[in-house]
């Protein structure tokens, strides 16, 4: 595939660009359908005239259908974008980047989604889809699956197809809530994922930002202790990686507290631990559920995070812990290599 892509780029670069542009249009329709032309042109930063020309061609090819509700993909259109994913991956030169990241951080497997979720919200949906597909391939009967919260994590159950062939699966939240939007809380994500897997689930109705004294009292309740025992027996963990300031705000910390954490050099947060750029823990907060120490006991740890702005946080966490799987996007991956010494320039020239 890589050789074919290189040949195409050499002999007809305009064709490669057209394929990539139309793939982007199809992908955005898929994740937002039905969608009007004006809304789609805004998302893609294309003029309505430019978009109208491309959509007309895609409609003529039987890939898009247009109705009063808006634009939708036909079955052929959906099949095309799934079959094109591998081609676009190589067209963007992402395979050598994935291999470099895997070797630099000793990850078992690295998956990179083309695009940057900082610039295109549908990339988060694609990240969720990649995580759902990897989970489907690796989950076994009897597994306990733990998930954390966040906007990208919320895409996983939405992308997961209904599976009825698995037995004795339990889905649990990996940590307590942060008191934010209910749809991105770990409890909600766990319950929705369990429905798709036809699994049982257990919820953890404890805020993650209680005082140490209150937290100690709550986690010693028999019912809570039993749920935490299940959480810490997880076989598979799907978790996000947050920027230190971002998570501080989500936790409801004051500006003064966030400034103090930043002063310590914190750039990333996971499971109540804040890391500096070298991957060293510089601050901890009360947190219920899984801890950093539990990761070594989990069979498969899948870290999911994207966006170029998230690269410093991803770098910091990966320097502390090498997950079984890293699922990220092109924006974060290229920036990550840049932070590691500008190796992406070499990949672009390859």
Automatic annotation (TrEMBL):
Sugar-binding domain boundaries: 93-338
Entry keyword DNA-binding: yes
Record-level Gene Ontology MF annotations: carbohydrate binding; DNA binding
Domain CggR N-terminal DNA binding: start-end pairs: 19-88
One Pfam family linked to the record: Sugar-bind
Keywords: DNA-binding, Transcription, Transcription regulation
Keyword DNA-binding belongs to the record: yes
Family in the record: Belongs to the SorC transcriptional regulatory family.
Protein name (record): Central glycolytic genes regulator
Gene responsible for this protein: cggR
């Amino acid at each position: 595939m890589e050789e074919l892509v290189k040949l195409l780029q050499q002999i007809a670069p305009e064709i490669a660009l057209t394929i990539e542009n139309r793939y982007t249009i199809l992908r955005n329709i898929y994740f937002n359908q039905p969608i009007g032309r004006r809304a789609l042109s805004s998302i893609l930063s294309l003029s309505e005239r430019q978009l109208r020309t491309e959509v007309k061609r895609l409609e003529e090819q039987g890939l898009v259908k247009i109705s009063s509700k808006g634009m939708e993909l036909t079955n052929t259109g959906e099949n095309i974008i799934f079959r094109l994913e591998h081609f676009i991956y190589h067209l963007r030169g992402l395979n050598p980047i994935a291999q470099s990241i895997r070797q630099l951080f000793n990850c078992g497997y690295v998956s990179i989604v083309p695009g940057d979720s900082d610039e295109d919200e549908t990339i988060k949906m694609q990240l969720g889809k990649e995580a759902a597909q990897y989970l489907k391939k690796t989950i076994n009967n009897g597994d306990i699956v733990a998930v954390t919260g966040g906007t990208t994590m919320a895409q996983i159950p939405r992308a997961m197809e209904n599976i009825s062939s698995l037995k004795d699966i339990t889905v649990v939240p990996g940590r307590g809530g942060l008191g934010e939007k209910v749809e991105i809380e770990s409890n909600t994500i766990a319950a929705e994922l369990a429905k798709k897997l036809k699994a049982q689930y257990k919820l953890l109705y404890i805020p993650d930002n209680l005082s140490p004294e209150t937290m100690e009292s709550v986690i010693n309740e028999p019912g809570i202790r039993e749920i935490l025992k299940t959480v810490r027996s997880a076989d598979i963990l799907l978790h996000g990686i947050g920027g230190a300031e971002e998570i501080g705000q989500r936790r409801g910390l004051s500006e003064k507290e966030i400034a103090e954490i930043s002063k310590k050099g914190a750039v990333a947060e996971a499971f109540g631990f804040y890391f500096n750029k070298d991957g060293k823990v510089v601050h901890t907060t009360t947190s219920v559920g899984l801890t950093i120490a539990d990761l070594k006991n989990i069979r498969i740890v899948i870290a999911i995070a994207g966006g170029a702005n998230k690269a410093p946080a991803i770098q910091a966490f990966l320097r502390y812990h090498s997950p079984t799987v890293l699922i990220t996007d092109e924006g974060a991956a290229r920036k990550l290599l840049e932070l590691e010494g500008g190796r992406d320039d070499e990949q672009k020239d390859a």
